[in-house]
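User: Modeling request: complex.
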Amino acid sequence: MAAPTVDLKNRRQAALLAWLVPGLGHYYQGRRGKALLYFLCILGLYFTGFWLGDGKIVYWRWVDPFKNYENFNMYYIAQFFVGLAALPPLIQGTLAHFNFPPILGGFMDPSTEVLNGLQFRLGRFYEVGSIYTAVAGLLNVFAIYDAYAGPAFSDDDEPAANPADESNAAAVPATELSNP
Amino acid sequence: MSIYLHIFPLVAGISLVYAATRHEDWIQIRRHALRLCGFILGLLAVAMVLLLVVNTQI
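Assistant: Request completed. Predicted assembly structure:
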């Protein structure tokens, strides 16, 4: 990977902010255009999926995936990376695990009966909504990495279009490169 | 809205975000996103045609 040519400021803080709200880490770094792009694309996909799933497809339960796979929501592992918007299920799931009542009127904490009814009622839109929200989370992993390490290629450092250019560049002696 | 149309916003979002993680320049981002979007949709179209042929002709 090329050395970043943008000022990443405190890159760990930027990565944390990028996880909390997609685009916030880039806004902190002064990369405003990218911040807006990530914010709109990632949260747009997430909330579209959330809406398609009737607001009930993002949930989490602390169960053993091998023994209780029916209640295990594998999609949440990806959805988690959307950040704050996907944190309520983790709080609700943790409260339920320790036998505390749900907060916020059970928001993002659907019962098994509700989920079964939802799958029957929404049909394939249940899956589409789950995929949208999960892909949004996975895309934010890219965005977090971009906030932490900068773009994979800086624009001055694109791979040479002509392979001959690369071989010529490699043929330049190191002494010439170090003594311009 | 047909369930199949939901692929377009998804592919557009994936292409834009992926391209943005590779470049800082907007012209490069747009070019990369369009190329990637076309590639993904083309691949899906080829897969769909192949599956249709297998399902209907074989």
